[in-house]
Amino acid sequence: MKENMHSSITVQQDALTRILANLVSVSTRKSTIAYLSHVRVCFSGNSVEFTTTDNELSLTDSLQGIEGAIDAVISVDAFRLYEIVRRLPPDVGIIFSIEKNNLVVRSKRIEFSLPYLDAKHFPLISEEEKMGQISFAGDEIRSLFNKVRFATSTEATRQHLNGVYFESDGEKITVAATDVHRLAVATLTKKTGLKFSCIIPKKTVSEMIKLSSSKEVDLFLHGKEYVSRIRMVFGGIRLNSKLIAGTFPNFAAVIPQSFKSFLIFDRKGLATSIERVGLVSPDQSRAISISMKGKQLYLDASNSDASFGRELLELNEEVNEELSIYFNHAYLLDILSALDNKEVIMKFNNATSQVLFQGDESALYIVMPMAF
């Protein structure tokens, strides 16, 4: 790469800090492949574009109309650059220049020199043929995925569960996630004219939710016979992601068609009570029991050290039979946090079969009771 020691650009510290803060969340801090911990910096005239990747997901953002000009494409340590930039004085421009195979960063009387790699081997995610496009309001897509993402699996042996199922039948969008112990399903009525299904990695979902704040989001589907990539555009930010290969479980088959009993709770009140009693539940199982008798409901938790907690809740209607159902209380708190309704409905048949929680028709949650 030909260097011009007299070329430089000046950028604002706050704007660059915001960009790099987003980008480093995609990079891999410790990797045997140097480029995966780097940021690709493309200087072109009076603009500069930044890209990071973990080989499955890439994020690109840029600064336009900046002072000065450089023409170069380099790859530099993303985390080191971010830590330097965010600690520079906020009220003074940052000057970048390419000098003697180094990226030089200056601000006031501060100077850093960072070695770089040639960016020609930086792994960019290729974009296949575009199959379709869906436009969302930022709060619309954020709310939809926030309702289910907590239920994704963390087990490496179940890769097809390590993401969120995303489906459109042309009239409605459905998202779902499960770790086998619980299932979360949410729907959004939206005419797309597209019929497809795919599994979006949970890291991609997290980045999508973070970036979609108060912005319009354009989602592009890429592939040939089936969707194999998605690309999302948030204003000037572009997120490009591979998808998870595999078949998502037929989750509709595990949702009971009918229930014998149901209870209605104040959502925030129930969450507070579960969190309080759960303070003495075992660290590993996090078990808590919900016991019903007449118009009374008890939340109980105990530990091997003889710790015990109980809270009594009064019910509006009498329960037909005495029943105790054991849950991982963290699962219940995840569900109650994902909902934003004032009330939550709990539907059940017995102490061992699936229990359904629902705030309204837009989302439902299935939890398997614990065996005791």
From TrEMBL:
Keywords: Cytoplasm, DNA replication, DNA-binding, DNA-directed DNA polymerase, Nucleotidyltransferase, Transferase. It is found in: Cytoplasm. InterPro entries: DNA_clamp_sf, DNA_polIII_beta, DNA_polIII_beta_C, DNA_polIII_beta_cen, DNA_polIII_beta_N. GO terms for molecular function: 3'-5' exonuclease activity; DNA binding; DNA-directed DNA polymerase activity. Gene3D superfamilies: 3.70.10.10, DNA Polymerase III, subunit A, domain 2 (3.10.150.10). SMART domains: POL3Bc. Its main location: cytoplasm. Residues 9-125 form the DNA polymerase III beta sliding clamp N-terminal domain. One of its GO terms (cellular component) is cytoplasm. Confers DNA tethering and processivity to DNA polymerases and other proteins. Acts as a clamp, forming a ring around DNA (a reaction catalyzed by the clamp-loading complex) which diffuses in an ATP-independent manner freely and bidirectionally along dsDNA. Initially characterized for its ability to contact the catalytic subunit of DNA polymerase III (Pol III), a complex, multichain enzyme responsible for most of the replicative synthesis in bacteria; Pol III exhibits 3'-5' exonuclease proofreading activity. Belongs to the beta sliding clamp family. PANTHER family: BETA SLIDING CLAMP, DNA POLYMERASE III SUBUNIT BETA. NCBIfam families: dnan. This is Beta sliding clamp. The lineage of its organism: Bacteria, Pseudomonadati, Pseudomonadota, Alphaproteobacteria, Rickettsiales.
